[in-house]
Amino acid sequence: MDTLTINNAEIKVNEEGYFTDPSQWSEDIAIEMAKKENIDLTDKHFEVLNFLRSKHAEEVPLSIRKVGKSGVVNIKEFYALFPGGPLKISSKIAGIPKPVSCV
Amino acid sequence: MEALETKTLENNTSVKDKKRVKKMMVICARGTLEDVYAALIMANGALAEGMEANMFFTFFGLDAITKKKADHLHTATVGNPAFMRGMPTMIGGLPGFEALASSMMKKEMDKLDIPPVSEFLEMIEAGGGGIYACKLAADMFHITKDDLVPEVKDIITVGQMYELAEGEGTHMVFI
User: Fold this and answer.
1) Which of A1, A10, A59, A102 does the annotation list as catalytic?
2) Alpha carbons B22 and B12: distance in angstroms, whole number
3) Pairwise CA distance, residues B74 & B77, whole Å
4) Nearest neighbour of A64 by CB, restricted to B50, B114, B123
5) Is A64 in CB contact (< 8 Å) with chain B?
6) Do A96 and A53 meet the contact criterion of CB atoms below 8 Å apart?
7) Which parts form a coiled-coil structure per UniProt (chain B) (predicted)?
8) What pLDDT, on the 0 to 100 scale, is given for residue B54?
9) Which range scores top for mean pLDDT: B69-83, B105-119, B145-159?
C-alpha cells in the first residue's frame, strides 16, 4: 500500500497506483491524476469517468465493450480520450480498481 | 543451494530490466470458433494494454473475416479430444451436433460479455488495430476484398505482413 499526495490530500493507492478507496476521489484530484498520464481532462473525459464510477458503485464489471455501448463514447473515441490503454488509464483516473476483464 | 539462490537473484534482475512488449502480430490460420476467439482476444487485449496490434488471417482463418461466415464459426466436435471428454466420437459426428455445440458455446461467451466475431473485429479496428488477409490463401480460396468484412484493411503478402511486424519489441503469435 502506498500513498499519493495530491492537493494536500493523502490518497491511498495500491502498488500500481490505483485508488484503494474510491471515496477519496474528487474532480480536482482526477485533474491531477490525469496530468500524470499527460491528459488534460475535458467534459467528455468526465462523462466517461462518471460512467465508470457509477458502474463500479453498482458492482458491474467493466470492459471496453461496455464503455463502447454506454452511449457516452464509442470505442474509437474512448481510445482517443485515454491513449495507451483506455480502460486501465481511465479507471486509474476515475479512482476505481484496475479492471480485470480480458475483453 | 547457493547456486540456486544466485539464480533466483539473476531472475529478479532480469525482471526489473524487462523490455515492454510494444507490438503484437497475431496470425490466425484456423477457422474454428475457439482458435479465432483466442486470436481476437489476444489482439484486442494488446490494444487495451496500450500496445499496437495487427492481425493476419490466412487459410481457414479467412472464415473469421469473411462476411458470410464470420458469425457462423463452429467448434470441432470430432477430432477434438478435449471436447466433452468421454463422449464417443460418433456422437460428435451426428448431423446438427456441431451446430448445437457451437451455439451453446456462443451463449456461454455472450454471458461473459464476449462479442460476436464481427463485433470483435469492429472493436479491434476502433482500437487502432490492423486487420489483414493473406493474399496466397485468398487467391487459393478465390476470395476477393468484397467477400471480406469492411474492417479488413488489405489483402497482403507474407512479406508485407513481416513489414507490419517490424520494430523492436514486437511479438508474433501463430494460431
Assistant:
1) A102
2) 22
3) 9
4) B123
5) yes
6) yes
7) none
8) 98
9) B145-159
For residue B114, give the C-alpha cell. 464476449
**CB distance A103–B127 less than 8 Å?**
no
Is the pLDDT at B17 greater than 70? The verdict is: no
* Partner-chain residue, chosen from A66, A83, A85, that has the shortest CB–CB distance to B113: A66
Locate cell 468526465: which residue?
Answer: A46
Q: What is the ipTM of this complex?
A: 0.90
Is A102 noted as a catalytic residue in this protein? yes
In a domain, A25, yes or no: yes
Domain enclosing residue A16, as ranges: 2-93
Rounded CA gap, B79 and B83, in Å?
Answer: 9
Amino acid at A83: P
B55 vs B154: CA distance, rounded Å: 11
Q: Is B112 helix (H, G, I), strand (E, B) or coil?
A: coil
Instruction: With a cut of 80, say whether residue B91 has pLDDT above it.
Output: yes
H/E/C letters for each residue in A21-83?
A: CHHHCCHHHHHHHHHHCCCCCCHHHHHHHHHHHHHHHCCCCCCHHHHHCCCCCCHHHHHHHCC
Instruction: Tell me whether residue A37 is in a domain.
Output: yes
Q: Judge whether A30 lies within some domain.
A: yes
Residue A27 lies inside a defined structural domain of this protein = yes
Number of compact structural domains in chain A: 1
Please check whether residue B25 is in contact with residue B171, taking contact to mean a CB–CB distance below 8 angstroms.
Answer: yes
For chain B, domains (ranges, CATH) are 25-174 (3.40.1260.10)
Give the integer Cα–Cα distance in Å for A12 and A24. 8
Q: CB–CB of B48 and A64 under 8 A?
A: yes
The letter for the amino acid at B141 is: F
Q: How far is CA B155 from CA A99, B26, B37, B132, in A?
A: 35, 15, 21, 6
What is the spatial distance between Cα A50 and Cα A54, in angstroms, rounded to a whole number? Answer: 6
